[in-house]
Amino acid sequence: MFVQNRTILVEKGNSDKVIARFSKEGPLDHMEGLIDISVMVNKKSKDNEEVVVVIRWESQEDWKNWEKSDAHIQGHRDKRGQESPAFIISTLVNMYESQIVKRGKAYANQ
């Protein structure tokens, strides 16, 4: 499994805008090899909110196919020259090759 982890730091009260973006149906949702997308919010800080987006792929090759897909490239072209929303403080992206996945009891019941 290949995992992309995106941590987006936003000004307090703006995490819902990031959540809305990742909640919309889009081309990513129909890509071969996409396992799931999880969006989590940490509102513990008094100054800002942290939105963590975890996108899991069956393989790094599946992720690469998304990166070079027409839909992904066009999405970046459409945003070229646009500034990031002012409420976004920073974004950090990391990629991981999963080494171990342990399924819990709740997973077995699905």
Strand content: 35-45%
Based on DSSP secondary structure assignment, what is the total number of beta strands? 4
- Look at the helices and sheets and give the structural class: alpha+beta
- Radius of gyration, in angstroms, nearest whole number: 16 Å
Lateral strand order in the biggest sheet: 2-3-1-4
CATH topology: Alpha-Beta Plaits
Q: What separation lies between the terminal Cα atoms?
A: 20 Å
Ranges with pLDDT <50 over ≥5 residues?
none
**Count of DSSP-assigned helices:** 4
Please explain how this structure is put together.
With 110 residues, this protein is α+β, with helices and mostly antiparallel strands. It has a single domain (2-101), classed as Alpha-Beta Plaits (2-Layer Sandwich), CATH 3.30.70. It has helices at 15-23, 60-67, 70-79, 105-108, and strands at residues 2-11, 34-42, 48-57, 88-97. The protein has a four-stranded antiparallel β-sheet. The longest helix is centred in the last third of the chain and has 10 residues, at 70-79. The chain is globular and about 40 Å long. The chain starts with a strand and ends with a helix. The relative contact order is 0.29.
Quick overview of this protein structure:
The chain is an alpha+beta fold. The protein has helices at 15-23, 60-67, 70-79, 105-108, and strands at 2-11, 34-42, 48-57, 88-97.
Please give the structural blueprint.
Blueprint lengths: L1 E10 L3 H9 L10 E9 L5 E10 L2 H8 L2 H10 L8 E10 L7 H4 L2
Antiparallel strand pairs: 1-3, 1-4, 2-3
Protein traits:
35% strand; 4 strands; 4 helices; 110 residues; single chain; Alpha-Beta Plaits; four-stranded antiparallel sheet; alpha+beta
